[in-house]
Amino acid sequence: MIVQDVARGVHSGFPMCCIAFFVLAWNRRNLRGGWDLYERLLDATEPMAGYVRCPVCVLRGRVARAHYCTDACRGKAGARAA
Ligand SMILES: [Zn+2]
Ligand SMILES: [Zn+2]
């Protein structure tokens, strides 16, 4: 679900550009081939980023510090522990 993916991305502290890229392109990548190279690029540039970065962030070397949910997140919109 797009709404849940966006809420989860926002809660996790990912940049909006990357959330949009994830929802609009990455989630649909299996409909079209050609993503192997991008996956390898993500692994090669920032394998520990913890999320799918958009091409702009990859080019600029921008990496957000991902938030990892704890019990304190329970019940909040987009939290994994909800
Ligand atoms: Zn981005
Ligand atoms: Zn959380």
Write the topology of this structure.
Elements: H1 2-11, H2 16-24, H3 36-45, H4 55-60
Helix pairs in contact: 1-2
Q: Which short descriptors sum up this protein?
A:
82 residues; mainly alpha; 43% helix; binds zinc ion
Mind telling me the C-alpha Rg? 13 Å
What is the H-and-E element order? HHHH
Q: How would you describe the shape?
A: globular
Write down how many β-strands occur, each being a DSSP E stretch of 2 or more residues. 0
Uncertain runs with pLDDT below 50, 5 residues or more? Answer: none
Largest sheet: none
What count of helical segments does DSSP give?
Answer: 4
- What is the beta-strand fraction? under 5%
Number of domains: 1
Bound heterogens, unique: zinc ion
Task: Summarize, please.
This protein is mainly alpha-helical and 82 residues long. It has helices at 2-11, 16-24, 36-45, 55-60.
Describe the structure.
This protein is mainly α. It has one domain (2-73). The protein contains four helices and no strands. The protein has helices at residues 2-11, 16-24, 36-45, 55-60. Helix 1 runs antiparallel to helix 2. It is globular and about 40 Å long. The protein starts with a helix and ends in a 22-residue tail after the last helix. The mean pLDDT is 91. The structure holds zinc ion (ZN) (2 copies).
